[in-house]
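Two proteins, back to back. First:
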Amino acid sequence: MKKIFAGNLPADMTEQELTALFSAHGRVRSIRLARDIFSGACRGFGFIEMEGHEARAAISALNGMELRGNHLKVNEERPQTKSFRGRRR
């Protein structure tokens, strides 16, 4: 199971649209679209879970694709690293 990051999504993107976009390359296990708390609009990114070989196919097919004027950024999710800022003085 791989988690995919999809960025630069249009503000009016829905979970159904994102599912349809990725399901063309395999079975989508789950989708989580980041939404603004107040307006409910898409914040421009989301996470998709797919099987390994299907995820790789989706990444290679959708990365850089134009969708409503936005060039999608699709890659395998990498865990965030915490930056060390040192000790406060």
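And the second protein:
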Amino acid sequence: MAEEHAHHPSDRTYLKVGSLLFILTAVEIALYFVEDAFESEWSLYLLIAALIILSSFKFILVVMYYMHLKWDDRMFSWFFLAGMFVAAAIILAMMAMYRYY
């Protein structure tokens, strides 16, 4: 019987990924509070774009390392990434709809 998880990450890898997730979350929270200092509408758009990018990166880290998709078949990674893009498109469409209507 072949070993299923030949490339299982070490504890050190999990600590690095967890630390990076913590830092990215702290940056997201800091961005939210810094945005209050700016009054322009463009700062809101910049905040939304930055939060979407950071959240997407965190999603990819969690999926690839904690759900072990980095070592699974690429098809599974494409399913998760496709779902992320569909969800982001729906969220952006809803935000635009509520903004202008």
